[in-house]
Design goal:
Immunoglobulin-like, alpha+beta, 12 strands, four-stranded mixed β-sheet, single chain, Ig-like_dom, Zona pellucida-binding protein 2 isoform X5, four-stranded antiparallel β-sheet
Length: about 300
């Protein structure tokens, strides 16, 4: 069985916006700090972070005298109010429209006073809380596909030629969606047909991936980038399915009694989806309006080869 390697890794979570794997995530959606360890938080791209409080749960259950709060961002600069940074008078932080560039360490220092009742002596206490905030994307999807073609022989250059022509056709078919074919492979096998003779067939497998060069351009007009890429990969899948359906139609309706030695095996097309983990993150020719048969493409390719 062909093992399909994932192209890259991503920081993503199955939880919703501001997901936190910690008891410090309260029922109200507030996140409290911890004296002992940094609190890790995952925020979906272009969503708001949960409300981060500059104190721990224990401190929040007690009265706090003259509290002051100082937030430091990933660039080690003091955070101030702006379009994306919201600081409340209670010392809470909300990061709006979270971007990949905003990922990193957020540190808050809480200063407050304790007062002795007898002497009214004041003591200033300082506590530091670290929050590690990361942007994540929803998982993207890719499609694994398999298809079979008959061939005259398992030996010869035309098998490799068909393989390369097919990949080129499929890439051109989905290039405007910024999807492409990756990890293509094929093997030739001798297949015994019931009540018939042996037939040589090419077993072709490949993956359709939504991250062709220039794929980030699909995100320019979309807030949820993964929605755009997943929509494109679905369209790419549908186009390829339609292409192979057209091959069967061409085979049965455009050829009389003479069937080419290399042709699509009807009902051999298979497709299944897979979650594609994606790292942190050139429009080509438009899709053809009419599908050419593989046989026609091969004839053109043969002519070019013979002219060499």
């Amino acid at each position: 069985m062909l093992v399909w390697a994932l192209l890259s890794a991503v920081l993503w979570s199955v939880a919703r916006v501001g997901a936190l794997r910690s008891s410090l995530f309260s029922k109200k959606g507030f996140v409290y700090g911890s004296i002992e360890n940094p609190v890790k938080i995952y925020v979906k791209l272009h969503q708001d972070s949960p409300i981060l409080f500059c104190m721990d749960v224990n401190r929040a259950s007690k009265e706090t005298v003259d509290p002051t709060y100082l937030w430091i961002g990933p660039n080690e600069n003091t955070l101030t109010e702006n379009g994306q940074i919201n600081l409340t008078k209670e010392g809470a932080l909300i990061v709006k429209d979270f971007m990949e560039s905003l990922s990193g360490l957020y540190t808050c220092t809480l200063s407050y006073k304790t007062i002795k009742a007898e002497t009214q002596e004041e003591t200033t206490i300082k506590k530091r809380y670290d929050f590690l905030i990361f942007a994540y994307r929803e998982p993207d999807y890719s499609y694994h596909m398999a298809v079979r073609f008959t061939t005259k022989s398992c030996v010869g250059r035309y098998n490799d030629l068909l393989f390369r022509v097919l990949k080129k056709i499929l890439d051109n078919l989905i290039s405007d969606l910024l999807c492409h074919v990756i990890e293509p492979s094929y093997k030739c096998h001798s297949v015994k047909i019931p009540e018939s003779d042996f037939v040589n067939e090419l077993f072709i497998a490949f993956q359709v991936n939504p991250f062709a060069p220039g794929w980030k351009s699909v995100c320019n007009d979309s807030i949820d980038c993964e929605d755009a890429t997943n929509r494109n990969i679905l369209e790419a899948r549908d186009r390829i399915e339609e292409f192979f359906r057209s091959q069967a139609y061409i085979l049965y309706h455009h050829f009389n009694k003479t069937i080419p030695a290399m042709h699509f095996v009807d009902h051999s097309f298979q497709v299944w989806s897979a979650v594609l983990e994606h790292s942190v993150l050139m429009l080509m020719s438009p899709v053809r309006s009419v599908f050419l048969s593989i046989h026609t493409e091969l004839k053109l390719a043969h002519k070019l080869q013979d002219q060499r």
